[in-house]
Specification:
By secondary structure, the chain is an alpha/beta fold. The protein is 38% helix and 18% strand.
């Protein structure tokens, strides 16, 4: 875990503050060209800051040849809590494991899915969950997580992104933030990004009765160092992450976004 003295204001706080893991989620919408480079660059930024992280990739299915979260949970192939201890940045197949966790996603179940993940990856400071909106809503409802939902400037991406937002809100009570991946050096692309973001905000307000946050992130090749914009986004996500310990769940922010029932919203 991170040395607490680097993150606490006094030495006394170190004695009483248990280290906690940060859980960050990215909702997959099937736009691999925008999602995967952004996910990779964010992880690269966190790694360059000195964090250790485990990426649970629910777009990849576990198998005997490619074991992952399900094997860790069943303790049939990999030793629990130590399978990836020697890796500072682990990528773990997680499609079957997250589905298995969703069967025990009730608030009354103990341990909660987040506590289970914290136990399995206790040596990592950041747990990144990359999954579809459906999987996130089923596995992690009412957790206060704020999924990051990437999209491209293509106007065809507006409808599936809106549908993902709707599913996260209504089924999982999760308030997502969209991020449009764009060539920030191209003024026309930036205008297109503004148009896409505004359309999404209008749809969320008109049909769901919700105000949503929209961001813009630069498209960036995988082999380049993270830009300042990516680092800023990485820090923002870290600040807004949910912190989890074995005994309790706490939000790193002081309050979670309030999701009012969309009683005044039009159906869509």
């Amino acid at each position: 875990m991170l040395n607490a003295s680097l993150h606490q204001t006094t030495g006394f706080n170190e004695l009483f503050t248990q280290p906690a893991q940060h859980v960050i989620v990215m909702a997959s919408n099937g736009d691999w060209h925008g999602e995967l480079p952004l996910l990779w660059n964010l992880c690269s930024a966190w790694s360059s800051m000195g964090y250790t992280l485990a990426v649970l990739d629910a777009t990849t299915t576990e198998s005997d040849r490619n074991p992952g979260l399900q094997q860790l949970m069943d303790n049939t192939r990999l030793p629990t809590g130590s399978a990836f201890d020697h890796v500072n940045w682990a990528i773990v197949p997680a499609a079957l494991g997250l589905t298995q966790l969703s069967e025990h996603a009730s608030p009354n179940e103990t341990p909660t899915p987040l506590q289970t993940l914290s136990h399995l990856f206790e040596s990592y400071e950041i747990i990144v969950i990359y999954a579809s909106a459906h999987n996130l809503a089923a596995c992690l409802p009412d957790t206060g997580l704020e999924p990051l939902l990437p999209l491209s400037i293509n106007t065809l991406s507006i409808v599936p992104t809106y549908q993902a937002l709707k599913h996260l809100m209504l089924k999982g009570h999760l308030h997502a933030t969209t991020v449009t991946v764009v060539d920030t050096s191209n003024p026309m692309d930036m205008l297109s990004a503004q148009h896409v973001n505004q359309r999404l905000q209008d749809c969320a307000f008109n049909f769901l009765g919700q105000h949503i946050s929209t961001l813009t992130a630069p498209s960036q090749p995988l082999d380049e160092l993270a830009t300042d914009d990516i680092k800023t986004l990485a820090l923002r996500l870290l600040e807004r992450a949910v912190s989890v310990r074995q005994d309790t769940l706490t939000l790193t922010r002081t309050t979670a976004p309030h999701l009012a029932p969309p009683s005044t919203a039009r159906k869509h």
